[in-house]
Specification:
Layout: H1 2-13, H2 16-29, H3 33-68, H4 74-96, H5 104-108, H6 114-125, H7 129-148, H8 154-178, H9 180-198, H10 204-217, H11 223-243, H12 270-284, H13 286-297, H14 301-306, H15 315-326, H16 328-332, H17 345-349, H18 355-376, H19 385-409, H20 434-458, H21 460-476, H22 478-491, H23 493-501
Helix pairs in contact: 2-6, 3-7, 4-8, 4-10, 6-11, 7-8, 8-9, 8-10, 8-11, 12-13, 12-18, 15-19, 15-20, 18-19, 18-22, 19-20, 19-21, 19-22, 20-21
Length: 503
Amino acid sequence: MINQLLKNKFMASYSVIDSIKLSKKKFFRAPQWELKLAIRILIGFVVLYFLAAFLFLGVGIYFIAQKSAPEQNPVFLINQFLIYYFGIDLLIRYFVQNLPITDIKPLLIQPISKNKIVQGVMLRSLGSFFNWIPLVILLPFCIVYTSNETTTYTLWIWLLGVLFFAGINNFLVFFINKSRVVAVGLFLLLLLGSFFQNVLGVPLLSFFEKGYDFLFLNPEAVVVPFLLFILTIGVQYFFLKKQLYLDKGFSGKKERIVGSGLTVFDRVGSLGVFIKNDIRLILRNVRARQVVFMGFLFLFYGIIFFTQEVYMESYVMLIFAGIFTTGGFMLTFGQLVPAWDSEYFSFLMCQNISYRNYLKSKLYLMMFSVVLSLILSLPYLYLGIKIMTIILATAIFNFGMGSFITLYSGAFNATPVKLNVKAKAFENTQNFSFSQLLFTLPKIVLPVLVFYVPFQFFGFTAGIIGLCLTGLLGLLFNGFLLSIIEKTYQKRKHQTLSSFQKT
C-alpha cells in the first residue's frame, strides 16, 4: 500500500522541469563534459549572433520592402518567400535539430506515466532555436509596420498564423526522423511538386502565397493553421506514445538478417568479404544509411543549377554541380573511410588480411556509386546534350581520379564514427577534423581547374576533354596510385588505431 502511494506520488510529481533537471545532470556527469561545455558556450555565442542578426533583419524588412516594391504591401512581399522559408527550415531541422528523446529509455523503467514523458519531450522541443527565428524576425517587422502604417489587428493574427506553421514544422520533423515511410513520402511529394512547378508549369508555389495573403486579409482564416497545429500535436502525441517501449523493434520476428546473403561477392575471394562487410554496414546502421541518403540527395543538386538561366553561361558552376551530382556518395560516405570501421578496426588490423584488398573494396564501392549516379542522372538528358555531356565528363573524373583522392584523404581521417547514432550538427561533433575539410577542396577545386584552364584557351570542348583525360589517366595508373595510398595507410596505421581506441 505504501509502495503504491509512493509510486503514485512520484508519477504525479514528475514534470517538464524534472526532465530538464535530468538533462542537466546527464550533461555535467558525462565524460569530457568540460569540452562539451566549451562547445556549448561557443555555440551559444553563435546563436546570439544570429538572433541579433535576425532581429536587425526584422527591423529592416519593412524598409527593404518599401524600397524594392513601394506599390506593394510589405506583408504580401514577405508572403512570397514564406513557403521557401518553411521548406528550407524543415530540411535544416531534419539534419540539425536534435530531438529530446535520448533521455526517454531510463524513464521507462521508472514509475512515471507515459503521458508525462511524451508531454515533456514535446514541450522541450518547443524551445528549439528554429522556433524562435520567425518570432525574432517578424515581431520587430510587425512593430515597425504598425508604427508606419494604419493597420488593424489582422497583422498580428497573420503573425500568429505564421507561428502556428512554424510549430507544425517543429513536430513534423519528429515523423520524418522516426518514420521512414513519412520521410520517403514527403520526399516523393516534393519531387512531384517540383515536376509540376518546373516542368509542367503548374503554379503550386503561388497557391501557398495566395493562402498567406488570404490569412492576412481574412483574420478568421487563422483557425486553419491553428487546427492543423492541434492536429499535428495530437497525431505526434499518439505516435510518440506508441514508440515508448523498451523492446520496441524486437516485437517482430525476422526470419533473415538484413544483408546476410550477398553470395555473389564470394567469387572475388577476400576482396568480396570486405565489399559484403561495407554493404552490411550500410544496411544495418542508422548513421551509414543517413549518410548514403544524403549522398542520394546530391543527385538532385543539378536541379538547382541546370534549370536556372543565370547559371547556363557559367560553366564553372555547371562543373561544380556535375561533381556533386555524380559524386554524392563518394563525397559523403567515402570521406569517412576508414572511420566507418573504427569500432572494430583494431580487430581487422590484427588479422592476416591484405591491406591492399581492404582499400580496393572501398575504392570499388565508390567507383560503383559513381556509375550508379550516372545512370540515375540520365533524366537530365531532358535538359539538353550540353548538360548531359558535363555530367558524363564529371562522372569520368570522379570515377578515375576523384575516388583515388577521396580514398587517399581517408588515411588522415582518424576520428571514429558511432554507427548507430544519427549525425546532428551542433550536438554531434564526432568525425570532424580540419584535415578532412582540407582534403575536401581538391575533390571540388581540382575538376574545376582541370576544366577551366583548357576552356579559357580552347573552349568548352577542350575543357570537357581535359576532365575525361584526367579521369582516364587515373584509371591507367590505378596500380601506381593505389600503391601510394597503401603506403600512406600503412605508415599512419598505428596512429589511426590509437585515435580510434580513444573514447
